[in-house]
Design goal:
The protein is 38% helix and 19% strand. By secondary structure, the chain is α/β, with parallel strands linked by helices. Strands 6-7-8-9-11-10 form a six-stranded mixed β-sheet. Strand 6 and strand 7 form a beta hairpin. It is globular. Bound molecules: adenosine monophosphate. Residues 22, 26, 88, 106, 236, 239, 266, 282-286, 289-293 line the site of adenosine monophosphate.
Length: 319
């Protein structure tokens, strides 16, 4: 039987379903999670369906997450979205679940769930969720379609990134057509920023270091974050803006997170494969969009050195 139908049957079978996604969520993670939760509730109003994990104020427009005491939950069906492995799932500590379903677009060699749809060449988790809903008797409405639309737009960086395919446009077209989405006003939620963030963007551009191999990086201290009045999640929202710089093959933001005493690293590329290097530094992700976590400045410097080498090898391979 088709995997989508098998997943639909599992959803139909369980009374309690918990929908989760990765820690440090981005719009695709939150949108796919809330869209799937709401689609299950809409299709099966009698079921208890929860979207769990830490709330992010700036993503409130997608909908609210559920705060529930897990002691009352037994034998739930757990659905994980936009995350390759269970260790990066947010908010499931202490949850008693019986089976796991995964819908994801990150590369992953191991099978981690009982049933899974893994399409590492899909633009976004929202694209996979939308396709799943369209191919099964699951129901959708305008609010769910809007969330899925925004998740796809965000994770494909407005259809710029290479995993944008004909299928992406077909799904987006169907969302817009079937639910009459007035999509231009939705962009306000995704793209409106306060002026201090624009000024911080200017700081990043001004302080980009560039190696002769085409690696660009900025180290962002807590003092700089304070000076510009931004939080340590802000650089993540800006990393994609530094694409298409002629001299840059791969680019990195290193942000020190004081409360967790860790360096958060965002890495992007427009050619060299970066996720294999990120994996060596407590990280991972996609071939051209990865992240890592380092404990010390010397680990950071090693990561920069390794990625510079990756850029050098890539450059030489083109000659
Ligand atoms: P970010 O730069 O945080 O937007 O992350 C880019 C991609 O890398 C996303 O697909 C993340 O899920 C993934 N990623 C970020 N940090 C990590 C990490 N520490 N471990 C594994 N994957 C990560």
């Amino acid at each position: 039987m088709d995997i989508g139908k098998l997943i639909y049957k599992k959803i139909k079978k369980y009374d309690t379903i918990v929908v989760a996604r990765h820690v440090g969520p981005d719009p695709d993670a939150i949108a796919s999670q809330i869209a799937l939760r709401d689609a299950i509730r809409f299709t099966f109003p009698q079921k208890k369906v929860l979207a769990v994990g830490a709330s992010v104020t700036k993503f409130k427009y997608f909908g609210t997450l559920d705060k529930e005491n897990y002691e009352n939950i037994e034998n739930a069906l757990l659905i994980i979205l936009d995350v390759p492995t269970l260790d990066r799932v947010d908010g499931i500590e202490g949850l008693s679940y019986k089976e796991v379903i995964k819908l994801d677009h990150h590369p992953c060699d191991e099978k981690v769930a009982d049933l899974e749809i893994v399409e590492d060449k899909a633009s976004s988790a929202c694209q996979i969720v939308a396709e799943f809903i369209f191919k099964t008797p699951m129901k959708m409405n305008e609010a769910i379609a809007s969330n899925l639309f925004l998740g796809i737009v965000s994770d494909s960086d407005r259809f710029l990134l290479s995993y944008t395919t004909a299928k992406t446009f077909q799904i987006v077209s169907k969302l817009i057509n079937d639910y009459q989405l007035d999509f231009a006003p939705l962009y306000n939620n995704l793209y409106e920023r306060p002026i201090n963030e624009i000024r911080f963007h200017g700081y990043l551009a001004e302080h980009l270091n560039l190696t002769e191999n085409g690696l660009a990086y900025v180290k962002i201290t807590p003092e700089i974050l304070k000076e510009y009045g931004v939080d340590n999640g802000t650089p993540s929202n800006m990393i994609n803006d530094f694409n298409y710089i002629k001299e840059v093959l791969a680019w990195i933001f290193v942000t020190y997170d004081e409360s967790h005493e860790i360096f958060k690293v965002n890495i992007r590329s427009r050619g060299p494969i970066i996720n294999e290097t990120a994996e060596k530094y407590n990280g991972g992700g996609h071939k051209f969009a990865s992240g890592a976590r380092c404990k010390t400045e010397s680990e950071i410097n090693n990561l920069l050195k390794d990625l510079d080498k990756v850029c050098k090898n890539y450059k030489e391979s083109l000659e």
